[in-house]
Amino acid sequence: MKDIVFCSNNCFVLYSAALQAKNSENKESVPSLPQSPMKERPPKAFHQYSNNISTLDVHCLPQLQEKVSPPSSPPIMFPPAFEAAKVEAKPDELKVTVKLKPRLKAIHGSLDDCRPPSKKWKGMKWKKWSIQIVIPKGSFKPPCEEEIDEFLKKLGTTLKPDPVPKDYRKCCFCHEEGDGLTDGPARLLNLDLDLWVHLNCALWSTEVYETQAGALINVELALRRGLQMKCMFCHKMGATSGCHRLRCTNIYHFTCAIKAQCMFFKDKTMLCPMHKPKGTHEQELSYFAVFRRVYVQRDEVRQIASIVQRGERDHTFRVGSLIFHAVGQLLPQQMQAFHSSKALFPVGYEASRLYWSMRYANRRCRYLCSIEEKDGFPLFVIKVVEQGYDDLVLTDTTPK
């Protein structure tokens, strides 16, 4: 039988008629491969074909005898699956060889041999950054703010201002020092000489009421009564906030009333835990911050008179940012020259005031004002005290 070569679209197929006949006859019986090392291979056929698809050329090619190959090593025994595959193979089948594309050349010493070499920029070198997180076993307690502040203080990496001096002013109602929380006792208000009261401690007293201008009336009256009343929560004197229920004698400090879970209402009344309604109430007040201008109404003339009567006691009288250190005095021979139609100029008068700096528009400094005597007439002295500068002294014969 002759071998026929078909050419179509530059693809060549070799079909053997003899092989087809042979396969049809031997479908049921499959011969086993010989185990001898010497194996005769079918002779190779050399074919000639033309690239012209339109004219198909078929040739009968001569068969050449193949040279006998040298004896090979003993055959290797394969598993049964591979042997069955060898049995099915026919010696006359066409063998197809697939040629793969060559791989990229491996780079010696690189992490990935298949990747092309990266560009090396002049003066720079790329590195890989690996992050490793170590989580300690067991319970971890985060450091508190005090420990962090102490650690930063040891390192010396932070700049902190000087600590604020402790406020020793004490509320004469609840006996707590310093300003309270905004949503609590609130700020301290001056009641009298070295007498202070928290805003809400005075506002929520039974006798006290507030005018439209923000003045608190009857604060001194509430203080006199509170000095004789004991709080139901802390059992200390100074309680002024009583239960609004008729014939209820429970009375508290404002801070103690919050701790005892009393109910406050928008009409400035309060009910103790025994008489408050269950659940929430539409008129209940839960926020106590006061941002409006509030002050204690008092007799300033009587207050100044009490300062003079107390003599040389160590007290400070302040009006806003103006602090009085010494009132001074006038002798009979000085009365003629040390006064005007509107003011007196006592020798030894001294006061200080915090006001805007003359050097910077957004800073404040201290001005120390005093009155001295020179040639029988008053001399007004102002000393400017500002941090980072020497004291500047200004003098004149008139207060202006």
UniProtKB/TrEMBL annotation:
GO terms for cellular component: MLL3/4 complex. Keywords: Chromatin regulator, Metal-binding, Methyltransferase, Nucleus, Repeat, S-adenosyl-L-methionine, Transcription, Transcription regulation, Transferase, Zinc, Zinc-finger. InterPro entries: EPHD, FYrich_N, Znf_RING/FYVE/PHD. GO terms for molecular function: histone H3K4 monomethyltransferase activity; transcription coactivator activity; zinc ion binding. Pfam families: FYRN, zf-HC5HC2H_2. GO terms for biological process: methylation; positive regulation of transcription by RNA polymerase II. It is an enzyme of class 2 (transferase). Residues 168-276 form the PHD-type domain. It catalyses: L-lysyl(4)-[histone H3] + S-adenosyl-L-methionine = N(6)-methyl-L-lysyl(4)-[histone H3] + S-adenosyl-L-homocysteine + H(+). It is found in: Nucleus. Its EC number is 2.1.1.364. This is [histone H3]-lysine(4) N-methyltransferase. It comes from Psilopogon haemacephalus.
